Amino acid sequence: MKILLLGANGYLGRHAARALRALPGAELYTAGRRPPHDLTLDLAAGQMPALMADLAALAPDAVVNCAGAVSGSALNLAEANARGPALLSDAMLAAAPQARLVHLGSAAEYGATEMGVALTERSPVAPVGVYGATKLAGSLAVAGSRLEEAVVLRVFNPVGPGAPAQSLPGRLAGELRRVGPQGRIRVGDLSAYRDFVDVRDLAEAVALAVTAPRPLPRVLNLGSGSARPVRELVRALTGAAGFRGELVEEAAAGSERSAVVPWQRADVGAAAEHLGWRPVTPLERSLADLWESTAAEGARDGAERPAVAR
């Protein structure tokens, strides 16, 4: 099976690559803006003829799109998260219509919901902010495409080894490495509830989506199925780090989305039914492994900025 992976250098993409390479008989090819990759490709600025030619030459059985942007200008977010998936869907329809497209969406597409309610794939979508809106546009382009085999995996809050500095866990881990066990750390509002899911469990879901024997629903939620207070995550990560210093919570330093979206929890029943997938990694294990993975990274990744939840 030939699998083309876009975004293999990113957080989710790196873990997805490991899971895909482990599939029996898999031939994994990667595409990205900078080498080394099998294909040089930037979906945000790519052109249809070149992408069609590359897809026709490779003739993949599946394409996994982990590419995207979580920060930047509105234009950059729109190009990466909306234009990119739309371009990919149209190019595949023309040049590789037999291939299955697995696209990674985001829980940010849902927006605010009632406390205690689990979000299903049929829940209303009302994203808060440009990031969620552009991710929704990209997911709609994939789900609404004329490809026979296309699925959006709507990912909730990933956590685990290698978490990037743009995320609360990654940034907080960097801060903890910088200040040491007796330091002082500023964080944003920690009152929100989020559905944290281990990145390795997500990677396993991607592999299952690639190899599922039957056509899949257009959208599947991927989360832990439980909502945990962000404060609980912070407590567990500082515990794993042996932190005994001062933690200063400043509501003004939090993200706009944390205030407007105080609660999110995924209903993962559809993923269990159609993929045979269940998350298996406890949050505490995810955070312990994240802390260990930062041992050689020191204080990079913008440690001076307050840690906030998306």
TrEMBL record:
Q: Which residues form the NAD-dependent epimerase/dehydratase domain?
A: 3-223
Q: Which Gene3D superfamilies match?
A: NAD(P)-binding Rossmann-like Domain
Q: Which InterPro entries match?
A: Epimerase_deHydtase, NAD(P)-bd_dom_sf
Q: Which family, according to UniProt?
A: Belongs to the NAD(P)-dependent epimerase/dehydratase family.
Protein name as annotated: Nucleoside-diphosphate-sugar epimerase
**What organism, scientifically named, is this protein from?**
Kitasatospora viridis
